[in-house]
C-alpha cells in the first residue's frame, strides 16, 4: 500500500493577487542607461525614476498618491549633461535627493513640498571634479554622510 507524502509548507495556502490599475504608474519612459545601480528610489512622500531624456540626464519625482497614466509633459529634474546612473533619497529629509551621472558629477536636489510643478534645473549643491562617471550613491543613515563610487 503506497502512501502519498505531502510536504508541509507554510506557503501552500498563499495566493497572489494582481495590483489594480489605479495603483500603478503607466506610460513612464524608463531609462535604458541603467548601471549596476537603482533606476528608482522611494521614500514616504515620493517615488523617483530615472527616465530617458534628450540632451542629458533626467529623472521624475512623483508624489506617492499620484498614480495612473503619467503625462509625457510631467516636469523632471534635469541638470546633468550626461545620463543619470543612480538616485538616492536622503533618509533624514524626504525632500532631498542626490543624483550621480555619467558627466562625472553628483547633484543634490530639494524637491518642493507638493512635488514638482515645473522642471527643476538648479541643484542645491553640485559636486564636480570626479575623474570618472559616478555609478553608485549611498547616503549613510547613521552618520548623515554621503558616499559615491566611480568606475576604476
Provide a concise account of the structure shown:
This protein is mainly beta and 152 residues long. The protein has a single domain, classed as Methylamine Dehydrogenase, Chain H (7 Propeller), CATH 2.130.10.10.
Model description:
With 152 residues, this protein is mostly beta strands. The chain has one domain (21-150): Methylamine Dehydrogenase, Chain H, CATH 2.130.10.10. It is built from no helices and twelve strands. The protein is globular. The relative contact order is 0.17.
Topology:
Blueprint: E1 25-26, E2 40-42, E3 46-51, E4 57-63, E5 68-69, E6 77-80, E7 84-89, E8 96-101, E9 106-110, E10 125-127, E11 134-140, E12 145-150
Parallel strand pairs: 1-5
Antiparallel strand pairs: 2-3, 3-4, 4-6, 7-8, 8-9, 9-10, 11-12
Keywords: Repeat, WD repeat
Protein name: Coronin
InterPro entries: Coronin (IPR015505), DUF1899 (IPR015048), WD40/YVTN_repeat-like_dom_sf (IPR015943), WD40_repeat_CS (IPR019775), WD40_repeat_dom_sf (IPR036322), WD40_rpt (IPR001680)
Amino acid at each position: 500500500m503506497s502512501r502519498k507524502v505531502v510536504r508541509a509548507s507554510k506557503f501552500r495556502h498563499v495566493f497572489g493577487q494582481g495590483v489594480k490599475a489605479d495603483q500603478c504608474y503607466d506610460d513612464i519612459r524608463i531609462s535604458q542607461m541603467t548601471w549596476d545601480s537603482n533606476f528608482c528610489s522611494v521614500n514616504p512622500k515620493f517615488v523617483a525614476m530615472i527616465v530617458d531624456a534628450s540632451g542629458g540626464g533626467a529623472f521624475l519625482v512623483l508624489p506617492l498618491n499620484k498614480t495612473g497614466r503619467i503625462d509625457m509633459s510631467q516636469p523632471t529634474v534635469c541638470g546633468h549633461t550626461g545620463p543619470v546612473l543612480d538616485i538616492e533619497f536622503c533618509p533624514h529629509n524626504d525632500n532631498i535627493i542626490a543624483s550621480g551621472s555619467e558627466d562625472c558629477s553628483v547633484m543634490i536636489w530639494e524637491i518642493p513640498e507638493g512635488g514638482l510643478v515645473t522642471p527643476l534645473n538648479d541643484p542645491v549643491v553640485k559636486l564636480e571634479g570626479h575623474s570618472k562617471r559616478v555609478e553608485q550613491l549611498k547616503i549613510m543613515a547613521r552618520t548623515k554622510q554621503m558616499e559615491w563610487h566611480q568606475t576604476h
